[in-house]
Write a structure and sequence with these properties.
The longest helix is centred in the last third of the chain and has 14 residues. The two termini are 18 Å apart. The relative contact order is 0.24. The protein contains 2 helices and 2 strands; from the N terminus they run βαβα. Strand 1, helix 1 and strand 2 form a beta-alpha-beta unit. The radius of gyration is 13 Å and the shape is globular. It is an alpha+beta fold and 71 residues long.
Length: 71
């Protein structure tokens, strides 16, 4: 069992079948999930902004203030 999920994506690659498979598993897990974009230095700002919007349309990723760890 996990408390959070980190979904690591290569920003220079297109969304593919493997990404979709993992995203479906993430949806089944129903845990706070953070989208981590790798290689953002290889794309321009507009591409990065559009990529973020695309992934936000696919899943409701967690914000920094939505995780609460029990003491």
């Amino acid at each position: 069992d996990v408390d959070i999920i980190l979904f690591l994506v290569d920003a220079t690659k297109s969304f593919g079948k493997g990404d979709n498979f993992v995203l479906e598993k993430i949806k089944e897990a129903n845990k706070p999930t953070f989208l981590i974009l790798n290689k953002v230095d290889k794309i321009n700002r507009d591409e990065l902004f559009n990529l973020i919007l695309k992934y936000k349309d696919l899943y409701d990723f967690a914000d920094h203030d939505t995780i609460h760890f029990p003491c």
